[in-house]
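User: I'm curious whether this sequence folds into something compact or stays loose and floppy. Could you predict its structure so I can see for myself?
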Amino acid sequence: MTLFQFLSQYYYTVGLLILIELVALAVSIKNYRRHRTLRVFTYYTIFSLTEIWGQFIQMNLGDTTLLRNINGGFTNVFMIFEFILCIVIIVRHLSSKARRTAVLIDALLFGAVLTADVIRHPHFLYSEVFFFSESFFLLLPCLLYIYDLFVSAPAGRLRDEPSFWIITGFLILNACSIPMYITGGFSGSYQTALFSLNFILYSVLFILLIRAYSCPPENRATHART
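Assistant: Here's the prediction. I'll summarize afterward.
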């Protein structure tokens, strides 16, 4: 498989995602010193790009058990890293102790479900069940963050809050991924078109991440805690 063929998979949405991620990576490096709280997204973007190129390597070297296991394990680590990253950002920006506790309980439940799935299916390095669980358990924290914005009335303008753009991106990603994973097994010949949505949703997430870098550097002192 040539590079062009790989990038054109899923109606060229893979190529679109890589292009947007490269822009996001350049923006994150440029603003690395300016946005201290967003530095982790430089590594998140590199992580995502590495995962995609791992799939390209696997398709060219052959779908061997070793490569499948390496890519599967890497995908799982990325999923867990993404989940923890989103939870940490949300907890840091919630003004209510009760809502922060609810988010932490939600995260523990996700860990319990993931552990149970691994015990029941020890040979599954990754599956749609894992990704569905991640989207399901990230949906409530994202909604609580949006609710918190309405009841806590942030001191500054909402469009100048980097966390608003980032969590909005994760909310769109996870809310739209849930029906995709539910209907994936019944999509038949439309499965490729359906799962193109995954790359489109991640493209939206990285576009909103780029928008977050245009905000003024975040001042943690403005986030009141009760």
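Summary: Helices lie at 3-7, 13-30, 40-61, 65-93, 97-120, 128-152, 162-183, 191-213. Residues 27 and 218 are 16 Å apart (CA to CA).
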